[in-house]
Amino acid sequence: MASLFFLLILTFSSIFSNTFAADSNDHLKTYIVYMGELPKSDFSVASLHTNMLQKVIGSRESKSLLWSYEKSFNGFVAKLTEDEKNKLELFPSETQHLHTTRSWDFIGFPQDVKRAPLESDVIVGVLDTGAWPESDSFNDDGFGPPPDKWKGSCDSTNFTCNNKLIGAKYFNIDGFAGDEELSARDIDGHGTHTASTVAGRAVNNASLLGLANGVARGGVPSARIAIYKICHLRGCSDADILAGFDNAISDGVDIISLSVGGRIITYFRDSIAIGAFHAMKNGILTSNSAGNSGPRLGSVSNTAPWSLSVAASSIDRKFFAQIVLGNNITYEGAAINTFDGVIYPIVDGASVPNTKNGSASSDSRYCLPDTLDPTLVKNKIVVCKDLIDPAESALLSGASGVVIESDLGDEDYEATSYPLPATYLSIKEGNDVLTYINSTKTPSAIILKSNEVVDEAAPTVVFFSSRGPNLITPDILKPDLTAPGAEILAAWSQGTTVTGEQGDTRVVPYNIISGTSMSCPHVSAAAAYVKSFHPTWSPAAIKSALMTTTTQLSPSKNTDAEFAYGSGQINPIKAVDPGLVYDAGEQDFVSFLCGQGYSNIALSIITGDSGVCSPATNATVWDLNYPSFALSANKPGSSVSRTFHRTVTNVGSADSSYQVNVVAPLGMVVKVDPTTLAFKQVGEKQSFVVTVDATVGSNVISGSLVWSDGVHKVTSPIVAFFFPTF
Ligand SMILES: *[C@@H]1O[C@H](CO)[C@@H](O)[C@H](O)[C@H]1NC(C)=O
Ligand SMILES: *[C@@H]1O[C@H](CO)[C@@H](O)[C@H](O)[C@H]1NC(C)=O
Ligand SMILES: *[C@@H]1O[C@H](CO)[C@@H](O)[C@H](O)[C@H]1NC(C)=O
Ligand SMILES: *[C@@H]1O[C@H](CO)[C@@H](O)[C@H](O)[C@H]1NC(C)=O
Ligand SMILES: *[C@@H]1O[C@H](CO)[C@@H](O)[C@H](O)[C@H]1NC(C)=O
Ligand SMILES: *[C@@H]1O[C@H](CO)[C@@H](O)[C@H](O)[C@H]1NC(C)=O
């Protein structure tokens, strides 16, 4: 029988705790009992789960077992009391959140790029909010039947699959769908957007009501898409995330795209890391978003070394909305405004509090819900300070436009959509508008439809993109790389509106949104593109190919350097021919985990084997065969010295010789031995040792190591930094 060491995930959201308490048994909570590998024998796993549960709940009459994971790994979801839970070994978990086309051209991946015939055999599993199956991006004209390896199904009501969208399943194990329709149909938009960014077919004349007009296309337009709806409007439960992985793996997907996350948590309590580990064992690379919690250092999530963690960077197109005041002075702010301009009177929110409701101008200046006097804002533009969603509440109070003033107006902030004409100004410009309002008896203004502006500074990592260092394993550099994630046009759900906010009536087939959720599917597509040329490459080999062929970003425009962009911006064309790869398999990751001090018990949950750690299998973090190099010192101003063992596999030409080239800044000394690697055959492996001595200040110091044969440049960043031990 499988190891009876098990961990539990408590699926419980603080935000939605009331919903659970409203259940018939308010002392019961939902837990995931995660047991690692499937047993090798062929008895029913579900009956094993029932038996185990029986021992814990005794004779209590209850439909406790909600779900059995029995396809790709072993575990179940159950409703238990606190006492019952305590009879099992535990770890808690919460709700995960969605990290919310010109981009392909911008990164040098044109529509007519060379394609492998096998691209139409590649299946990308998208774990998200579902998809809108009728979108033009998922039209299957010209597609043959799915490849034979496909074992999935279209297991959803109100959803028709086709030869493009070949599978659809939804999960609602612990009731996160609430009273939403139980269907893989997307009523949020996020999943339709990410799935079409990965593998939507090319659609001409796509735009958001005329903005960003052009061809909307996924990175691998011939690939197939399988939809796993693991997120509902409320969020994404760990139970559903694991069910998505379990099914995607057994259905036969090649790449998993997952733009979800939130917590920074040890690998064994992280449903996404656990699911991705099983995917990796089955030859499937998982591409994850790095998170939208930047620019705070140490905010990067989804840091498991067997997955990709993707930052978000800008493309060379930005959207600005101008406001022209009655005195003809014009200001411009980042905003996606699809509305045609109309002249309206303009008022300061602070001057129109809803006194009948007891509101004061200290509330109405932020346009908080119900704090504006409807009779004084009707058919007017209102100026609001940014706090919580001033645009939605201004609209609900009857306003016809909104000027939002914010500290972030000075930052390089991403343009977003609002449910009414809007622009987004800095505090200083906002004040100028207020001064104008005070200067005349009949202040008026017009907010114009957004214009597209060329951003010469691109690519830069955007403000919100989560930054390193990696708090779980500091000496694994995260994020791994970056891709476009700002103001991306892609398909949208017709089951919602542009913003999804109250009062928005714009139902659109394409929408423009920003997030590491949008950069992640770019990398999923790049991985699928590499896989279509090299179907036998391991997840780590594909990941290495993507990371060692990136375009460097400018450290002067990105002050957090590699903590912002990792190895750099993806270059899918180069990734198909990287020359050398840093490969790694399950045993390498297990040795790494052993070396990190994880117990045999914890590891057996993942591997299914007991006693996997031994001194012989114990590898230091510096010896994991990772395509980047990181070393931390725990005191600022101190020196640190580390030795890295690495092995590269020749995937270029048979007879080749690579020379090393090291770039090291002041304060960093790098030695590589040997400095030449000669290969006779494709598939041959060669090892080398890198020794780095660094004196770190308060900022990250960055060098690089490049293996070059004159054709390929296999590039890895080397970063040294101060990392406080907590
Ligand atoms: C492009 O789409 C718009 C609506 O989004 C439509 O009005 C226009 O006629 C289309 N143009 C072409 C050439 O199809
Ligand atoms: C603003 O510009 C318009 C058109 O250029 C002009 O007709 C109008 O008189 C100007 N108004 C003021 C207040 O300068
Ligand atoms: C006061 O606010 C409530 C909502 O909280 C709203 O329904 C009501 O119409 C408001 N009353 C007035 C007089 O504005
Ligand atoms: C505009 O006038 C109001 C009311 O007199 C005053 O509170 C506010 O400070 C003035 N704002 C500016 C920017 O002059
Ligand atoms: C299918 O989904 C659409 C869009 O969400 C919804 O309007 C419709 O009622 C659903 N149909 C059924 C039969 O549930
Ligand atoms: C592996 O290394 C870690 C960290 O140095 C140590 O805690 C652990 O005891 C070692 N395990 C074995 C089996 O040697």
From TrEMBL:
Residues 623-719 form the Subtilisin-like protease fibronectin type-III domain. It comes from the Eukaryota. The active site is at D128 (charge relay system), H190 (charge relay system), S517 (charge relay system). The keyword Hydrolase applies. Residues 30-92 form the Inhibitor I9 domain. GO terms for molecular function: serine-type endopeptidase activity. SUPFAM superfamilies: Subtilisin-like (SSF52743). This is Cucumisin. It comes from Tagetes erecta (African marigold). The lineage of its organism: Eukaryota, Viridiplantae, Streptophyta, Embryophyta, Tracheophyta.
